[in-house]
């Protein structure tokens, strides 16, 4: 029996999703769990796996198509099975027709192509094109009348415009020059969201960053013991330096609850529980999932939850509700693995602050008894909203993180 592949509904506010890429083609044999396609919402990007073994009998929407949630996107079954009853019957929203000319009754049939139709009684040709593709075509000066749309019902989508620009039949000298000199791609939904969030954060808050360093000899010693324990079988969870820093941040937040807050303009919401946000770099863009009630976890549990959240973000399986900016109460962003020695993290509003974790650098220090040597220090960069937090408490909070790191024991 044929099984439909349905566009998932990710969150209460999501009504449509955009298919970004198909990894399988019509007629391919698939197994349950095989990756079929990826798609984007207005919040994040996700992957969809095959729900069963069989043959990919039909793909109803191509790359770039905007698809309503809970609609059949594809069909999996046995060769020869009927697909008619599974075809989506979604009525597209009416769009303003683009008039490309007049056609006589005798030649309308020849002029009308897939993706266009004749408006009865007028002889006018209406081209089906998505609003985003229309804007892109107007910007590039592309005549859409001769483009065959690859979207639903022959609708022209952005990828069709891009193929026209990259093909031999580019229409103007200016476009030729543009294609030769550089490539241009429309922003993904995820990139648009990140761009808007970063701009809004800097525009709507008074951000200030303090920098401090912490001696990480205890952390490195604990990390060495954990690695040895993993090899010998004594340890099961591979706890990282970042896990330990997050643990220390949580302990500091418990002493400075005013930092564990959301600034809401005319009031501050201070949370009793720490919902720790962790910045995760993915191929689709930056995601910040929240680890709910992180202050109730021991170090091993916290490490497990951080790893699960990061893996789900990279696979596209993270719960959309966990990556909303309001899901976390405080965020940690770690660029230490990239060798960054100092940076200014941007607050994930409405949170009041964010901690940037930098790389470890050996620096000269007094070891006591007039002995000097090199000590490993980790850089800490705290950005806070000066509307919500004063400089004094922010500095004391950052100092508390430093002290928690320096007295860490495992």
Protein described:
The protein has helices at 108-111, 131-140, 158-166, 173-181, 189-203, 217-232, 241-255, 299-315, 391-406, and strands spanning 3-6, 16-22, 29-30, 35-40, 45-49, 54-59, 66-68, 72-77, 99-102, 116-119, 124-127, 207-215, 261-263, 268-270, 276-278, 280-282, 285-287, 290-291, 330-334, 353-368, 371-385. The model is unreliable at 90-124 and 169-179 (pLDDT under 50). It contains 9 helices and 21 strands. The strands form 6 sheets. Strands 12-21-20-19-15-18 form a 6-stranded mixed beta sheet. Strands 1-8-6-3 form a 4-stranded antiparallel beta sheet, with no helix packed on it. Strands 5-4-2-7 form a 4-stranded antiparallel beta sheet, with no helix packed on it. The N and C termini lie far apart (55 Å). 27% of the residues lie in helices and 28% in strands. Strand 20 (353-368) and strand 21 form a beta hairpin. Helix 2 packs parallel to helix 3 and helix 7 (241-255) packs across helix 9 (391-406). The chain folds into 3 domains: 3-86, RNA polymerase II/Efflux pump adaptor protein, barrel-sandwich hybrid domain (OB fold (Dihydrolipoamide Acetyltransferase, E2P)), CATH 2.40.50; 99-186, Dihydrolipoamide Transferase (Irregular); 191-406, Chloramphenicol Acetyltransferase, CATH 3.30.559.10. It is α+β, with helices and mostly antiparallel strands and 410 residues long.
């Amino acid at each position: 029996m044929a099984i439909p592949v349905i566009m998932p509904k990710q969150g209460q506010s999501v009504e449509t999703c955009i298919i970004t890429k198909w990894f399988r083609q019509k007629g391919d044999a698939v197994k349950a769990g095989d990756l079929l396609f990826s798609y984007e919402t207005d919040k994040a990007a996700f992957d969809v796996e095959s729900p069963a073994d069989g043959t990919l009998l039909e793909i109803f929407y191509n790359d770039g198509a905007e698809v309503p949630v809970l609609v059949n996107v594809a069909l999996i079954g046995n060769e020869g099975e009927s697909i008619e009853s599974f075809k989506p019957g979604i009525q597209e929203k009416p769009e303003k027709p683009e008039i490309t000319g007049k056609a006589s009754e005798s030649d309308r049939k020849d002029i009308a192509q897939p993706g266009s139709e004749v408006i009865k009684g007028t002889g006018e040709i209406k081209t089906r094109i998505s609003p985003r593709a229309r804007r892109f075509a107007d910007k590039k000066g592309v005549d859409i009348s001769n483009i065959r749309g690859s979207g639903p019902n022959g609708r022209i989508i952005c990828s069709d415009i891009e193929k026209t620009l990259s093909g031999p039949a580019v229409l103007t000298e200016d476009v030729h020059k543009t294609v030769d000199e550089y490539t241009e791609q429309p922003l993904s939904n995820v990139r648009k969201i990140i761009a808007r969030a970063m701009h809004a954060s800097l525009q709507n808050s008074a951000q200030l960053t303090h920098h401090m360093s912490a001696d990480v000899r205890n952390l490195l010693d604990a990390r060495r013991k954990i690695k040895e324990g993993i090899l010998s079988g004594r340890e099961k969870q591979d706890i990282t330096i970042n896990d330990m820093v997050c643990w220390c941040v949580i302990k500091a937040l418990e002493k400075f609850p005013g930092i564990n807050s959301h600034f809401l303009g005319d009031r501050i919401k201070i949370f009793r529980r720490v919902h720790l946000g962790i910045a995760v770099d993915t191929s689709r863009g930056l995601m910040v999932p929240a680890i709910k009630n992180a202050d109730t976890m021991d170090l091993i549990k916290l490490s497990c939850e951080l790893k699960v959240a990061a893996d789900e973000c990279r696979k596209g399986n993270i719960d959309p509700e966990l990556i909303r900016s309001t899901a976390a109460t405080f965020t940690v962003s770690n660029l230490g693995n990239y060798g960054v020695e100092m940076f200014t993290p941007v607050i994930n509003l409405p949170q009041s602050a964010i901690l940037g974790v930098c790389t470890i650098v050996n620096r000269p220090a007094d070891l006591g008894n007039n002995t000097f040597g090199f000590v490993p220090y980790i850089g800490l960069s705290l950005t806070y909203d000066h509307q919500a937090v004063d400089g004094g408490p922010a500095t004391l909070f950052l100092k508390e993180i430093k002290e928690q790191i320096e007295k860490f024991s495992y």
